[in-house]
Amino acid sequence: MSCENNMVNIAVKAADAKLGTDIQVLDVRELTTLTSYFVIATGGSNSNVQAICDHVEDKMAEGGFKMLNKEGYNNAEWILLGYDDVIVHIFQREPREFYKLEHIWKDAKIVDIEDLLVK
Question: 6-116: what fold?
């Protein structure tokens, strides 16, 4: 079931299209004023993480959404893209396992995005 927030849907589809894996969406609206959703994805290499990032940026821009900040692109172990209601985290596997955002934000609601992913 896609998310009520179109930015989330665009980011998920874009990450999936560039072979992002283990994509999860956390609804953090009741936990922080920082943002409403986290989109978290994993890439297999520096170039894959950057390709996911580039595609998310392109698709969000096409949707009319302005990026507010971008961190970590050159290192490409963990890229963060900040938008109004969504923060997109694109990790390589080891940093994702180390930082465990899903555990840190374990009280967040997990959004069912199964219908957005290519099967």
Answer: Beta Polymerase; domain 2 (3.30.460)
What does the mean pLDDT of the chain come to?
95
Cross-strand partners of 69? 82
Measure the CA–CA gap between 93 and 43, rounded to whole angstroms.
7
| Residue reference for tokens 């096409």 | 62
Angle at 79 between CA 78 and CA 85, to 5 degrees: 125
DSSP conformation class of 74: T
- Tell which residue, 15, 35, 12, has the closest CA to residue 83: 35
pTM of the prediction? 0.95
- Helix %, strand %, coil % for the chain, to 5? 35, 25, 40
CB 12 within 8 A of CB 25: yes
Side chain identity at residue 104, one-letter code: I
Average pLDDT (65-91) is 97
Ordered by start, the domain boundaries in the chain are 6-116
- Closest among 54, 83, 50, 86 to 69, alpha carbons compared: 83
